[in-house]
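In this supplementary section we document a worked example of the pipeline. Step one takes a protein sequence of length 168 as its only input; no multiple sequence alignment statistics are reported here. Step two produces a three-dimensional model, which step three serialises into structure tokens for compact storage. The input and output of this example are shown verbatim.
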Amino acid sequence: MVRPSRSIWPLSLLVVAVLAADRATKYAVDKLTPPGSIHVVIPGLLNIVHTSNPGVAFGIFADTESPWRAPLVISFSLAVMALVVWLLVTDRAGGWLGRSGMAFILGGAAGNLLDRVARRSVTDFIDFHIGTHHWYTFNLADSAICVGAALVLLELLFDLWQPRRQVS
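The serialised model returned by step three reads:
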């Protein structure tokens, strides 16, 4: 049986914090703004736009009408989350940056998974844009997944740049 290391508890708190922040922001958007509404936060740069995304990142598969879309996306999410949990619990997620990144990814994935299970779509609301050029609308869970991936990538790059010690 695999025993989690002591360092798993701070990471668990990070997962819960990301999940709680994601749920709170989606709840606020769902309760306080009607679907399709637009609230300008910073003119020409940031809006709060209440949208629903039945697809995956960047709206991929959003237009697919297949009855298999939601079950497949949910199954894939569960598989990825199980892999991340295994990497964390068995202490195979790298150093501090990699483990923190995996915790961000796990918290974000859990937030979006809860939406998919409950409603078969994810609430998105952050609309960054420069003038009329808009990025895809996203949510806090998506941001956490991106931050987590960046932390994992940073650790991998730092590992590449560090000189290797020779063992004698």
